[in-house]
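User: tokens in, sequence out, please.
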């Protein structure tokens, strides 16, 4: 006879509980009692019969393993018969194909699925047939189905279908691509205040909708908030109940395995004291505790003194019940935010703000939030700080032969197991006496496989023969050779992407790592591109539907290949630069440039950039390291020549409107820029290969030839500017996509205009006497509004002017002429069209003016009086232009200084003329 929920358990009953020797009914009753009984918890902690028992395990505060019911459940799972199957029991339900398991709990399992005809991925929650016959389960499942279906809000996971098939009840929900906020906090620690506030603001808006439907969530915590790749926060685990309802009264099992109806550190005092007193304000308390946790890195009530002490701290009115002020843990928090968090966690529910009020008050606290970047940073950060590159194979040793498999002596290592299970990609093997439980996951697909050991199979044939369990690592049930074979036979991009992840994971710390890097890059010969779909698993183009397969391939490649850097990634990449076709070369150049720049999934990570720079500096100090870098430089030169035939066909517009020729032109330039950066980072002992200077010489010669063939305005004898480059369609009179083209007020980019980096290199080579640019070409380039000017590390505007002036003393006057010619051009366009947006193009010159052209213009312009009048008119126009409506006073400073300087020069010239007379 087991103790009831109100009677304390005997020592023997406690031992039977943790050893998994109770029946289902006894286990449910006993675990519920221990969850609430400080006396039984203290006996469990002091139980000498189990020196390595769950009582000694100290999981992280955030871990679900911190809940005793979950610890007992895991203990039972670990001690279960190895012959039990964990495979997904069905392959098809209704019109949905089951692709894999996403998670499992007391209510059944959640699977990744795909609609047979629509080919759209979704998540399906399955209630097994045996649950249907048990009291309360079907009612609760139906409650969840109808509740989610009735809630339409962007912050709530959306239900799309439901039904019954072959005894299985199922609920179809949208598939969310992202990461729950609990995992994000686990990986990143304290979150930026603005990001934490934006997460909370969106969650508060969703909760406001929930509460408006007279429902209560009951379990708000970081892991029940999902951050998707588009920056949206979604509420998860919507086992919602009506206000005033008490689901615990219908089925005691809802408090034990599978559903605790709340998570202790985030629960409000009234929810802990009496679940029937839960109300919308209880969710607000939990949301405030969640925000406290995200900002400070700690729950409001620390896990000190055990479960009972924490419960008392939350529910009592002692000094311990007041958590440390948020600003004491996070000094950057503003007083207004600290006050709001305090109100959200007020002990009296009626004193807490509503979800709508929380969302409104937090609006001003989220201006600097960037949830997309936060998610990308979390996805690229290892989940355990103890190992930046965790082992792929976690082995939990089996108990000694003289102990029963049900002994919990090997439960203590579960802390490592829990940490490994949080990895976005993991391969975990739990060895047992008669086989292994193998868990594999890539963050999307999860598989649990039972493998009998050779010793068990051999024992069936010969009881005297044993052999060890194979140690080969597998991913989703397959080994490295299998996944490498996928590359050779697979055409579906998603499958190729999965193989990329598998090969990278399984080759870690093996002799086949270089082979894995090479075979990954080989696929770029077929699918390489300059364009990247950063969400390849569900990437869509602007008008719906999947993006181009090559773009999705590049998404997978840029997410996976950086893990091979620097070794053997650079060696394999160098081989591709030499042996690959134009597509592979394009991909390899992009990967190398991203590595040097610290770019991962479109975000720059300074730590990645620092690591790359340190690697190059270190190699630059040794002969062998310098040889490796110089070889890579030569390989980049070969790649540049591979791209030359196609790149030579590109026009000025091609790089901005992706075309094969434009992509080749862009990649060729990127190869040159990457080579220059390699030399800069590796140090002065690296000998630049001849092709780097030859490339500059060739590009300047091409540009000068095109410049001499440019169209000339017959009236002025100057370069003819055109305005035909349309960039998109806007509403206009027709509205939507049916509107008119936007009026282009900026001159087209001429095909002779050099990129900034090449122009700087050409000026430096001219200074050294290795190249000569025609002065008219050089000054018109640097003064053209479409020239994308920014100073290089070694050259300022004045340095460039000095270099040009060395070959022509009139260089400053020529520059002032072309600047004034631009002002005349836009003034004339305004007079013709009365379109003030023409004047806004003055901003194209701002940087150059501030860095030195301001003085050149006001000093050398031919007629300062006309220049003053024209500039005053244009500046007045500019601040009337719709495109410049949000200008600040700072934006006007440069123009005011120029007008004052021109007026002063005009007065000085006038005085000089009077004196001469």
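Assistant: Sequence out:
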């Amino acid at each position: 006879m087991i103790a009831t929920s109100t009677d304390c358990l005997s020592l023997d009953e406690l031992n039977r509980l943790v050893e998994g020797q109770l029946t289902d009914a006894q286990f449910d009753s006993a675990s519920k009692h221990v969850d609430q009984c400080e006396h039984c918890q203290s006996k469990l902690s002091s139980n000498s019969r189990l020196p390595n028992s769950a009582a000694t395990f100290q999981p992280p505060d955030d871990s679900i393993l911190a809940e005793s019911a979950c610890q007992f459940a895991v203990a039972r799972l670990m001690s279960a018969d190895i012959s039990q199957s964990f495979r997904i029991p069905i392959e098809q339900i209704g019109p949905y194909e089951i692709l894999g398991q996403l998670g499992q709990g007391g209510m059944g399992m959640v699977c990744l699925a795909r609609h047979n005809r629509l080919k759209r991925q979704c998540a399906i929650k399955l209630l097994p047939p045996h649950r249907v016959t048990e009291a309360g389960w079907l009612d609760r499942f139906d409650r969840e189905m109808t509740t989610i279906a009735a809630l339409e809000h962007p912050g709530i996971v959306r239900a799309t279908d439901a039904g019954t098939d072959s005894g299985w009840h199922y609920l179809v929900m949208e598939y969310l691509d992202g990461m729950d906020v609990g995992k994000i906090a686990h990986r990143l620690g304290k979150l930026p205040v603005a990001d934490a506030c934006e997460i909370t603001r969106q969650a508060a808006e969703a909760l406001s909708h929930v509460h408006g439907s007279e429902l209560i969530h009951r379990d708000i915590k970081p892991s029940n908030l999902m951050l998707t790749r588009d920056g949206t926060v979604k509420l998860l685990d919507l086992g919602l109940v009506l206000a005033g309802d008490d689901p615990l009264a219908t089925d005691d099992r809802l408090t034990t395995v599978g559903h605790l109806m709340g998570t202790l550190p985030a629960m409000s005092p009234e929810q802990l004291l009496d679940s029937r007193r839960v109300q919308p304000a209880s969710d607000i308390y939990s949301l405030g505790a969640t925000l406290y946790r995200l900002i400070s890195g700690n729950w409001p009530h620390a896990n000190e003194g055990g479960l009972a002490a924490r419960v008392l701290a939350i529910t009592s009115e002692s000094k311990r019940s007041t958590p440390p002020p948020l600003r004491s843990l996070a000094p950057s928090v503003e007083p207004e935010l600290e006050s709001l968090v305090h109100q959200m966690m007020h002990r009296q529910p009626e004193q807490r703000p509503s979800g709508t009020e929380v969302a409104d008050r937090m609006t001003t606290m989220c201006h600097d939030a960037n949830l997309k970047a936060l998610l990308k940073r979390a996805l690229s950060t290892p989940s355990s700080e103890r190992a930046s590159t965790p082992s792929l194979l976690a082995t939990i040793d089996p108990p000694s032969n003289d102990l029963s498999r049900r002994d919990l002596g090997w439960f203590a290592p579960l802390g490592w197991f829990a940490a490994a299970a949080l990895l976005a990609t993991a391969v975990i093997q739990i060895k047992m006496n008669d086989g292994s439980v193998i868990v594999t996951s890539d963050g999307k697909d999860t598989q649990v496989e039972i493998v009998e050991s050779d010793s068990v199979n051999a024992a069936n044939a010969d009881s005297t023969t044993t052999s060890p369990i194979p140690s080969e690592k597998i991913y989703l049930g397959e080994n490295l050779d299998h996944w490498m074979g996928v590359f050779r036979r697979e055409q579906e991009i998603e499958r190729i992407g999965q193989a990329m992840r598998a090969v990278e994971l399984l080759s870690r710390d093996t002799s086949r790592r270089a082979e894995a890097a090479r075979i990954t890059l080989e696929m770029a010969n077929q699918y390489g591109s300059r364009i990247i779909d950063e969400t390849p698993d569900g990437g869509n183009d602007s008008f719906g539907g999947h993006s181009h397969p090559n773009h999705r391939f590049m998404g997978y490649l840029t997410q996976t290949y950086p893990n091979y850097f620097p070794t053997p990634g650079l060696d394999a990449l160098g081989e591709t630069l030499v042996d690959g076709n134009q597509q592979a070369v394009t991909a390899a150049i992009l990967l190398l440039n991203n590595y040097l720049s610290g770019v991962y999934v479109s975000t720059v990570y300074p730590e990645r950039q620092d690591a790359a720079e340190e690697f190059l500096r270190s190699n630059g100090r040794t002969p062998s390291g310098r040889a490796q870098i110089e070889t890579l430089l030569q390989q980049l030169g070969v790649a540049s020549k591979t791209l030359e035939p196609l790149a030579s066909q590109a026009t000025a517009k091609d790089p901005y409107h992706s075309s094969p020729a434009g992509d080749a032109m862009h990649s060729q330039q990127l190869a040159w820029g990457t080579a220059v950066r390699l030399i800069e980072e590796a140090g002065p002992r690296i000998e630049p290969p001849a092709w780097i200077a030859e490339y500059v010489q060739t590009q300047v010669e091409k540009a000068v030839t095109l410049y001499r063939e440019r169209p000339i305005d017959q009236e002025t004898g100057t370069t003819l500017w055109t305005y035909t480059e349309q960039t998109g369609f806007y509403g206009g009179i027709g509205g939507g996509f049916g509107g008119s083209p936007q009026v282009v007020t900026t001159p087209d980019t001429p095909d002779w205009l050099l990129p900034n980096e090449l122009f700087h290199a050409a000026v430096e080579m001219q200074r050294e006497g290795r190249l000569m640019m025609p002065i008219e070409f050089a000054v018109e380039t640097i003064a053209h509004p479409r020239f994308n000017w920014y100073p290089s590390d070694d050259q300022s505007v004045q340095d460039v002017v000095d270099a040009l002036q060395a070959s022509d003393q009139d260089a400053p006057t020529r520059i002032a002429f072309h600047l004034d010619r631009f002002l005349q051009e836009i003034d004339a366009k305004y007079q013709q069209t009365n379109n003030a947006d023409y004047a806004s193009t003055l901003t194209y010159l701002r940087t150059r003016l501030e860095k030195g052209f301001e003085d050149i213009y006001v000093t050398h312009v031919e007629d300062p009086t006309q220049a003053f009048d024209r500039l005053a008119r244009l500046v007045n126009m500019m601040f009337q232009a719709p495109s410049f409506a949000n200008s600040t006073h700072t934006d006007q400073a440069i123009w005011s200084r120029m007008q004052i300087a021109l007026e002063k020069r005009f007065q000085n010239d006038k005085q000089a003329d009077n004196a001469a007379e």
